[in-house]
Specification:
Layout (H helix, E strand, L loop, with lengths): L1 H25 L5 H11 L17 H9 L17 H11 L3 E2 L7 E5 L14 E10 L4 E8 L2 E8 L17 E3 L8 E2 H4 E5 L11 H18 L1
Antiparallel strand pairs: 1-8, 2-3, 2-8, 3-4, 4-5, 6-7
Helix pairs in contact: 2-3
Length: about 230
């Protein structure tokens, strides 16, 4: 009887362990874009990023950098040029990595042009000026994105199929305003100012320093020798 109980207990424990192992193996790997999007969404409503980090600027490019920031991973290139703003520098790195795309997907970067009068000449000639992270793409093509604008981390929308339409026939918002009306220009909707997208994956991560990589190989080699 004792042997039977032991067998049942052992069998149950083994089965539980097997299920736990299977669950652990089946657990999906969290992608960079998913993690960044989760972070960005958790900041919606915040007026400043200063409490979380003092290493990035408290603006749209700083928010996206902080969302993706990990060990050896920064959206900014190492060689930021004097004439570049954060958005332009990130776009240049994305282009160099071959990550630019015309298709919006959750977790992708979205770039905008001429969202404000950067050079103060009243014209639409300011280049890339804004960036956010795509949250979702609706069935009607309306894209929701998270960004920092007007001193607030928030959600906004744009629709590339109807970029000049504020709302659809049912009154649903397709595009939020992204550039205010100026003395020489009208107001612009977000869909009118979209300049493209970029995916972010492990290719954005800087290579491991040679010395550290060599040290890890040496440690592995010593471990193998010790087992022989």
């Amino acid at each position: 009887m004792g042997a039977l109980v032991s067998a049942l207990v052992w069998g149950g424990a083994a089965e539980a362990a097997s299920k736990a192992t299977a669950t652990k193996k089946e657990r999906p790997v969290v992608q960079l874009a998913d993690r960044a999007l989760w972070r960005a969404k958790s900041w919606v409503g915040m007026t400043t990023l200063a409490k979380m980090s003092s290493t990035v600027t408290d603006d749209c490019s700083g928010m996206t950098r902080l969302a993706f920031q990990q060990k050896r991973l920064d959206l900014l290139p190492d060689d930021v040029l004097p004439e570049e703003n954060g958005v332009t520098a990130i776009h240049r790195k994305a282009r160099a990595l071959g990550m630019l795309t015309d298709t919006p997907k959750p977790g992708a970067l979205v770039f905008f042009t001429n969202t404000f009068d950067k050079n103060r000449d009243g014209l639409m000639n300011d280049g890339l000026t804004h960036i956010g992270i795509v949250e979702r793409v609706g069935a009607d093509g309306t894209v929701t994105f998270v960004h920092k604008s007007g001193g607030l981390v928030k959600r906004s929308r744009f629709n590339l199929l109807q970029p000049e339409a504020r709302k659809d026939a049912k009154g649903h918002v397709l595009n939020d305003w992204l550039r205010r009306k100026g003395k020489k220009t009208r107001g612009y909707l977000a869909g009118e100012l979209v300049a493209g997208f970029a995916s972010v994956d492990e290719r954005w991560r800087s290579p491991e320093p040679p010395r550290l990589a060599s040290a890890k190989l040496a440690v592995k080699g010593d471990a193998r020798s010790a087992r022989r």
